[in-house]
């Protein structure tokens, strides 16, 4: 029986239609729409009018697709952009009135659990891992193994939020980068303590920026185009790519083959976060995993 999962994020809305066969996800249909729900309002705790309408339009489209597939089991969740917005509940109400999609607002800890379930289903988690999911509004960290979640937390340091707070020069100046790193140091103290306790040996990056790293690696011939849902990223090449991204301006990033327009600026802040985490936590095995929240939602319905 087919189910549908809808992930309403700060930058993108995702629809996944599929089923679970022999414990694995069989994808029937997937669609991502660049809604930019947090645009202009993420740090004002408000969904701005243009973004609000883009969100309604995207979910109306998803509702039509779900209807075409005659699906009755639908799980739709909203994360930071709706969770934090003063008009988030109005948005949920309007979506239901127009599209009959019931949206559940989930907190950061619930979000982290769904991300873990998605990443685990990919097969990427086979040792003590630190899973990182960089969204527009928040970043989730999950310390885990294939059997359980050892520790988890969600932080309001998403890429769109950092852009709004720190993207004052193009390219970023050294002081801008220092300010971001200081902010990460102040924010992620408990993550460092948890890593001392649980000693992760691998970083698993889910979706978003890690999809972009994978696409750029493929376009540069570092890896072959593969259908695998997770793939190892060579350390030195990833470090060099992140340094290139952090030093570049908007125009230079827009010319990077494999980087979609939506992520041209988001990848900048994501790279600062990933570089910080790898260096501070001394992680030298890096995996890019396609599965994340929406796959976890689909598994939850099985």
From TrEMBL:
Signal peptide boundaries: none
Cited InterPro entries: ATPase_NBD (IPR043129), GppA/Ppx_hydrolase (IPR050273), Ppx_GppA_N (IPR003695)
Occurrences of domain Ppx/GppA phosphatase N-terminal (ranges): 17-300
UniProt GO MF annotations: pyrophosphatase activity
SUPFAM superfamilies, per the entry: Actin-like ATPase domain (SSF53067)
Domain of life: Bacteria
Pfam families named among the record's database cross-references: Ppx-GppA (PF02541)
PANTHER family referenced in this protein's UniProt entry, alphabetically: EXOPOLYPHOSPHATASE, RETROGRADE REGULATION PROTEIN 2
Name this protein carries in UniProt: Exopolyphosphatase
Organism: Pedobacter puniceum
Taxonomic lineage: Bacteria, Pseudomonadati, Bacteroidota, Sphingobacteriia, Sphingobacteriales
């Amino acid at each position: 029986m087919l189910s549908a999962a809808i992930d309403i994020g700060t930058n993108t809305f995702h629809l996944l239609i599929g089923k679970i066969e022999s414990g694995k996800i069989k994808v029937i249909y997937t669609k991502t729409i660049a809604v930019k729900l947090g645009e202009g309002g993420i740090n004002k705790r408000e969904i701005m009018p243009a973004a609000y309408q883009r969100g309604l339009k995207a979910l109306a489209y998803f509702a039509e697709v779900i209807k075409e597939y005659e699906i009755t089991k639908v799980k739709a969740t909203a994360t930071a952009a709706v969770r934090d917005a003063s008009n988030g509940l109005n948005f949920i109400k309007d979506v239901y009135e127009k599209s009959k999609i019931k949206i559940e607002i989930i907190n950061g800890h619930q979000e982290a659990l769904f991300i873990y379930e998605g990443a685990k289903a990919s097969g990427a988690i086979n040792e003590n891992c630190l899973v990182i999911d960089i969204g527009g509004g928040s970043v989730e960290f999950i310390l885990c193994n294939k059997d359980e979640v050892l520790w988890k937390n969600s932080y309001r340091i998403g890429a769109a939020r950092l852009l709004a707070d720190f993207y004052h020069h193009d390219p970023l100046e050294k002081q801008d980068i220092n300010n971001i790193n200081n902010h990460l140091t102040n924010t992620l103290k408990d993550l460092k303590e948890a890593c001392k306790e649980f000693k992760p040996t691998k970083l698993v990056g889910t979706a978003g920026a890690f999809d972009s790293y994978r696409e750029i690696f493929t376009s540069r011939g570092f890896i072959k185009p593969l259908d695998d849902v997770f793939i190892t990223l060579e350390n030195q090449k990833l470090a060099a790519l992140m340094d290139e991204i952090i030093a570049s301006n908007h125009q230079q990033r827009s010319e990077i083959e494999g980087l979609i327009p939506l992520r041209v600026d988001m990848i900048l802040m994501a790279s600062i976060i990933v570089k910080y985490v790898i260096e501070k936590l001394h992680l030298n095995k890096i995996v890019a995993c396609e599965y994340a929240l929406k796959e976890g939602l689909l598994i939850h319905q099985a």
